[in-house]
UniProtKB/TrEMBL annotation:
This is Xanthine dehydrogenase family protein subunit M. It comes from the Bacteria. Residues 1-177 form the FAD-binding PCMH-type domain. The keyword Flavoprotein applies. The keyword Thylakoid does not apply. Gene3D superfamilies: 3.30.465.10, CO dehydrogenase flavoprotein, C-terminal domain (3.30.390.50), Uridine Diphospho-n-acetylenolpyruvylglucosamine Reductase, domain 2 (3.30.43.10). PANTHER family: XANTHINE DEHYDROGENASE SUBUNIT C-RELATED (PTHR42659). The lineage of its organism: Bacteria, Bacillati, Actinomycetota, Actinomycetes, Propionibacteriales. Keywords: FAD, Flavoprotein, Oxidoreductase.
């Protein structure tokens, strides 16, 4: 289908984008890479009168070092994130998840901020950024505010970003030297996660000294598996050593049932995939 008629602007600064947003109110829609927005418009699930394209705002692009965190601009493409040296050195888990996200074409157009703002529970970026304790910087007419990952994801396709606000960047605390793995379960290549597990592990010899675990598609938002994290601290990095902790992967989850699998199947997957992800992150 063809989208309904809309006006289009491509401001070159966040301030101009916010002004356009404030002027149009509910009738405007932000566009980042357009990979999720355009299908929505073409299916006429949304019919904005104005599309505000962030593609010309250079300040929203790129990755920078900011002391104990790296900062990823909202308009940085998945491809750029995947190959960025800072991401690979300090937030390897993010690179691992982006590697498994969609196909090369979509990774060249889709953006880090767009995917997180879209907040699809099956999206692959929520779990790793939640696991690493990221903060989200959101700009509005009154200035910027910072929201923790725990508060950013509100519900299916719903985040803390207000209708008159723009996500500008994501701050990820450095996890330098941590092993990382994203275990994504799909039926066919390039599919959205049926279940995904993001694991970052700090090892001390053969012992896990610290761990961060996030779950994809095990509820309406990404879930930080804190029970698993607590159980892994001090565990031997062996199949049997991590088993009890990984059995806690379903704590606090509320997985959906759909054509790809029912909730019980997803719970089973969560335990199996968590064990695999942790052992691979610990290089076992
Ligand atoms: C065929 C296909 C397969 C895919 N497979 C996967 C997959 O396996 N895993 C996965 O995680 N994703 C997958 N995706 C989605 C991909 O990650 C998209 O890039 C992402 O969902 C949207 O990013 P975007 O930059 O294109 O945002 P857009 O489509 O432009 O925007 C998405 C939504 O976010 C809002 N938005 C965007 N940027 C901002 C901002 N800075 N501030 C406030 N609101 C904003 C928009 O208004 C819109 O509502 C797939 C997409 C397609 C088309």
């Amino acid at each position: 289908m063809i989208p309904t008629r809309f006006d289009y602007v491509a401001p070159t600064s966040v301030e101009d984008a916010l002004s356009a947003l404030a002027e149009a109110g509910d009738d405007a829609k932000i566009m980042a890479g357009g990979q999720s927005l355009l299908p929505v418009l073409r299916m006429r699930l949304n019919a904005p009168e104005l599309v505000i394209d962030l593609g010309k705002i250079e300040s929203l692009r790129g990755v920078r070092d900011d002391g104990d965190a790296i900062v990823i601009g909202a308009m940085t493409t998945h491809h750029e994130v995947l190959h960025d040296p800072l991401v690979n050195e300090h937030a390897l888990l993010v690179a691992r998840a982006v590697h498994d996200l969609a196909d090369a074409q979509i990774r060249h157009r889709g953006t880090f901020g767009g995917a997180l703002a879209h907040a699809d529970p099956a999206g692959d970026l929520g779990a790793p950024v939640a696991a690493l304790g990221a903060d989200f910087v959101i700009a509005g007419s009154g200035g910027t505010r910072t929201v923790s990952a725990d508060d950013f994801f509100v519900d299916i396709f719903e985040t803390a970003i207000g209708e008159d606000e723009i996500l500008t960047e994501v701050r990820i605390p450095k996890h330098t030297g941590w092993g990382a793995h994203y275990e994504k379960f799909v039926r066919i290549a390039h599919q959205w996660s049926i279940v995904g597990v993001a694991a970052a592990v700090k090892s001390d010899g053969s012992t896990i000294s610290d761990a961060r675990i996030g779950l994809t598609n095990m509820g309406s938002t990404p879930i930080r598996a804190r029970g698993v994290e607590a159980g892994l601290a001090g565990a031997e990095a062996t199949e049997s050593g991590v088993q009890a902790a990984c059995d806690r992967a379903t704590e606090g989850t509320n997985p959906p049932s759909d054509l790809n699998g029912n909730a019980d199947y997803r719970r089973h997957l969560a335990g199996v995939l968590t064990r695999r992800a942790v052992l691979k992150a610990a290089h076992v």
